[in-house]
Amino acid sequence: MSMDGRTCVITGSARGIGRGIAEHLGEKGANVVINYRSSEGPALEAVDAIETAGGEAVTAQADVANRQEVEHMREVCHEAFGPADVLVNNAGITADEQFTEMTREEWDRVMDVNLGGMFNCTQEFFDDIWNAEEGRLINISSVVGKQGNFGQANYAAAKSGMFGFTRTIALELAKGGSTANCVAPGFTRTDMVESVPDQVLERIIAGIPLERLAEVEDIAAVVRFLASEESSYVTGEVIDVNGGMDL
Ligand code: NAI
């Protein structure tokens, strides 16, 4: 599954799942745009890792919730590599609170990044993906979007919203021959899960048939398939990568 010469923009890719996806695609020959929100150091490390593996990468600062900054990211991509073939909407945040305690600000913050960011990036890169040979939109949702999760009404609503968005964009891209799909990871070993208390984590793992958390490589491998030309007849789907959590 070579990604030779394909230009991939991955939001929130200085660490965690995004970085795993970026490195995986870069190692397969993709030109990668590493997006970061505020601190360039980790993004430069990701560029180094990709270049060491023989790929090409640049950094692009943008808060995905800020349209002007996303426009700048598109300009960086076009200058470095030309139009994007693949956009992975990966950047996401949580602001957990039991619903009765959840503030409107916590609700809005999660919507602004997880859904607003996806809106901004998809609209900025829509023409690129439409015009690409085998263009790809890949949205990183979550098992929480399917199952819900105590204390995550905002996050679950946002991640669930990604499903309807993806199916709709899949229809709107189809005439151009490009696809849109969602990946819904289960609990994955990253900084996002780092804050979950050990006891809760043990209970989560006990409920996973494969008896372990996902590693970023588990998610990246599926994204690579969806980003490749081999997935050209898969569109509007949600691919679960959760160790069998919903069996
Ligand atoms: P993480 O917190 O380790 O990484 C998220 C990245 O997104 C960070 O680099 C962060 O700086 C960036 N980011 C956050 N807000 C941003 C913004 N406004 N603009 C640009 N970048 C921004 O999280 P992780 O675990 O790597 O998650 C990646 C995606 O996968 C998220 O969408 C998350 O919701 C989803 N996910 C994670 C799971 C997990 O268990 N870790 C499970 C299911 C889904």
From TrEMBL:
SMART domains: PKS_KR. The keyword Ribonucleoprotein does not apply. GO terms for biological process: monocarboxylic acid metabolic process. CDD domains: BKR_SDR_c. GO terms for molecular function: oxidoreductase activity. PROSITE patterns: ADH_SHORT (PS00061). InterPro entries: KR_dom, NAD(P)-bd_dom_sf, Sc_DH/Rdtase_CS, SDR, SDR_fam. Residues 6-190 form the Ketoreductase domain. It holds the Pfam family adh_short_C2. Keywords: Oxidoreductase. SUPFAM superfamilies: NAD(P)-binding Rossmann-fold domains (SSF51735). Belongs to the short-chain dehydrogenases/reductases (SDR) family. This is 3-oxoacyl-ACP reductase. It comes from Natronolimnohabitans innermongolicus JCM 12255. The lineage of its organism: Archaea, Methanobacteriati, Methanobacteriota, Stenosarchaea group, Halobacteria.
